[in-house]
Structure formats: C-alpha cells, structure tokens
Amino acid sequence: MNKSSRKAIIAGNWKMNKTRPEAKELLEAIKPLVANADGKVEVIACVPFTNLETAINATAGSNVKIGAENVHFEKSGAFTGEISADMLVELGVEYVVIGHSERRQYFGETDETVNKRTKAALAAGLKPIVCVGELLWERECNITEEVIARQIKLDLFDVSAADAKKTVIAYEPVWAIGTGKTATADQAEEVCAFIRSTLAKIYDNATAEAITIQYGGSMNAKNCAELLAKTNVDGGLIGGASLKAADFNTIVQAAVQG
Ligand code: PGA
C-alpha cells in the first residue's frame, strides 16, 4: 500500500477562537474554495463547542466536515463543564481532537485520559484525531522516538485494529505549535515514518499503512507543499493558518496535489 491509498486529511484546529457569527463567516468563505477537494482530501474544521451547531448548519451539504476539540470519556453524569461523545454525535459531529498538547500542558491531560477519551469517542462512532509530540528538551535529549512510541502505545492501548483504522494520528512537535517554528519536512517525515513503524509493531503492516498520519505545528501556506509531499505525511492539523480562509485553502490545495 502507498500514500495514495490513504485518506488525506486537512483539519483546522480553531482552538479558542471565533464567535458564532465569525464562525459562520469563515466557513462560508472556506466552503466554495475547497469544494474541488471533494473525494480527494477530507476537509475538517474542529471548532469550539459553542460553534458546533452553527458550523454543522453552515457546512450542511458541503464537503467540509466538523470536529470538536475535546470530549469526555464518561457517557453522562456528574462531570460539570464536560461534553460527552453521545452529545457530539447527536449534533452531527464526525471528528474530535484528543490529547492536543495544549490540553496536556494546561489541563492535566495524560496518556491515560487520552486513551479513555479515544475509546469513548470510537465507541460512540466519532473519529478521533489523537495528537502526539515531543517537547523541545525531549528532542534535545534525543528521546523523541521513546516519547512518541510511549504516547502511541498508551494512547491506543486496547484499541482494536479496526478502530485504529478509523483513528487519525497527528504528529505535533510541541516546540513547533504556535511558535512559527516548523519542523523541517525531513524531521516531520522521520517521525511520521517512526509512528507508522510503531503502529505496525502494535498491529500489523496493513493496519499501519491504512492509518492517516498528519503533521501539525506552524504548517502554513508557504511550507505546506513540502511537508505534504512527504511519503508518511498524509495531511495536516492546522492552528493559526486555519483561521484565514485563503491560507487554509492553499493548504487544502497542496494536499489535493499530494
Ligand atoms: P499552529 O497549531 O498551526 O498554530 O502551530 C497547530 C495545532 O496546535 O494543532
């Protein structure tokens, strides 16, 4: 199997940005630009909880899919402030970002909770985008592979091969997120290839070859083509540049080109 047989996925991660009218405006601008990607590249906008219904209505009938930015692992109950997978599914949400480094850094997310959220999302029919990535000092200490292998093994613990194929892995080196510092295309390829080999060890080659692996971390209109041309980089998880329709579209078009 080669890259062309995997689903290319470009996902915007809006983080804590946009009110509902702003969300509608941005999606209305994105929709016509990316319409030609239909059937070639999966285009997703992961938006704040408050924007989900607006985003789903604004993108109805288009090829833009909507994702959430987090999900709780319990089905329901006394978890003030949390949102369940069933609540997202009922709204029409298809994807959910899990284990983003900002949640790991600022909100106590651990590999154990990432694993629980991933399993809850899959059980409810959501497709998880599971984020992994090393800190700068971990890269400097030359333990990037150990860190990534540990995250992949723990985050996907007890996830079946069939469910793993529905899961997207986003490689996001923490030092490259929102910093303007991008991993070079070679660095991104090296770690994405390592992630695939780790998946092959956990599952098997066919499963590893079927899983979409994204790069994220200051991907933008200028550097996207080089990153997305790499064999094991099947897409991107885009923060800052996903808030500008033209830039986001440039990245989608680069993915269409492969
Ligand atoms: P960035 O964010 O593109 O702004 O670096 C990426 C992400 O956090 O997913």
Explain the overall architecture.
The chain has about 260 residues and is of the alpha/beta class. It has one domain (about 5-255): TIM Barrel (Alpha-Beta Barrel). The chain is built from 12 helices and 8 strands. It has helices spanning about 20-35, 50-60, 85-90, 100-105, 110-125, 135-140, 145-155, 160-165, 185-200, 205-210, 225-230, 245-255; strands at about 10-15, 40-45, 65-70, 95-100, 125-130, 170, 215, 235-240. Strands 1-2-3-4-5-6-7-8 form an 8-stranded parallel beta barrel, surrounded by 6 helices. β1 (about 10-15), α1 (about 20-35) and β2 form a beta-alpha-beta unit.
Task: Fill in the keyword field for this structure.
single chain; 258 residues; alpha/beta; TIM Barrel; eight-stranded parallel β-barrel; 12 helices; 8 strands; globular; binds 2-phosphoglycolic acid
